[in-house]
Amino acid sequence: MQILREFFDRNDKFFELKILFLICFLDIAALWFCASFLSISYHEAKVFFYKSDFVSYLIHISTAFFGQNEFALRMPMVVLHVFSVILLYNVSKFYLSHSIDRLFSVSLFVLLPGVVASAVLVSDAGLCIMLALLLIYLFHLKKYILFYVILFLTAFIKGEFIVLYLAFFIYALTRKNAFLAWFCVLLFAFDIYFFGFDTKGKPSGHFVDTFGIFAAVFSPFVFAYFVYTIYRIWVKESSKELLWYVSVSAFCFSILISLRQRFAIEIFLPFCVISTPLMVKVFMNSYRIRLARFRRKYTFMAAFVLVFLLVGYIFIVFNHLAYRYLDDPKQHFAYRQNVAKELSKELKNRQIYKIYSSDNKLALRLKFYGIEKSGKFRLKYGGNDIVIKRMGKKIANFTLKKL
Questions:
Q1: What is the pLDDT of residues 249-263, one digit of tens each?
Q2: Which pTM was predicted?
Q3: Percent helix, strand, coil in the chain (nearest 5)?
Q4: What is the mean pLDDT of the chain?
Q5: At what angle do helices 242-258 and 220-236 cross, to 10 degrees?
Q6: d(CA 226, CA 210)
Q7: Angle, CA 64 vertex, CA 60 and CA 68 arms, to 5°
């Protein structure tokens, strides 16, 4: 760790930017490789065909330029992810003074499973992460006019930013910023009125499930340290920064709601994964105040977590290899993002562009690839007319009959 610190803590901004560029380049290459093995899922198909929100507009613009294919479908999410990485690096400058700390923060962020998922799967998470980081960055830069304009515009992006308004409101109260507090109250009321917040259903606890999802998004060890970080800052530091208020508000609010009902946890997760600068700050402060001979356990801890995350990252990127070792392909965590693209290619090879299927979800997915639900052929599961294989192993098979 000492060698790395001396290596990075050179007063060479250009060198730091080169490392950042390398991280982004490798990350983009890995994400595109991962995306090349994915098909559009039913949820993504619904976003593309039925929704009219900001993410769906981005996808339609992309497909208008690059065609209706996987590259165009996932490009907006990858672009949002790259902007998020750059913004996180710039936000880290307000919390971390050493180059190695900032680069560790970026690396940790890139390797988080939830961040990887937001970068390749069509959802609002990537947009929420990017806008949250942009707002925090503008606030720290004291670009208040642009900050308030973008904060106001987020009120029209469904209801995902309610927790962000809550965080800014609490921060404003502690800093006696009346304008920001009232502005957030109005935005909060606006979102509740127009988008609402689902409190229907019979009260039931989902506390354990929520913790499990957080652990999956962060990875178990990072999630444990995330909880420790927000608690330690809460107890030890008299002055808390804006990023801490955003992360702790999202986490605590989600835990409180989970005591009563199941909810869309993706509303809160984007505002928690951006806390990597705080985690790195707490860890490095504990590391640096100790003598060299007492730093070994911290060095081992950091190396272990990074290796664990890297192995998980590689597993996600090369997830298609797992089919070789599964008896039931449907147990694969990415199975819902498979089959449709390969099936559409096989149908097109047979000059079939219209087909009837009783599976409406599959039919909608095939529609994205230009296979309409009609025609003289019927598609059924089972049989050996069409066999989809991955890594030499059958993952789906269909019967094709002429009507």
A1: 999 888 887 776 665
A2: 0.91
A3: 70, 5, 25
A4: 87
A5: 120
A6: 15
A7: 80
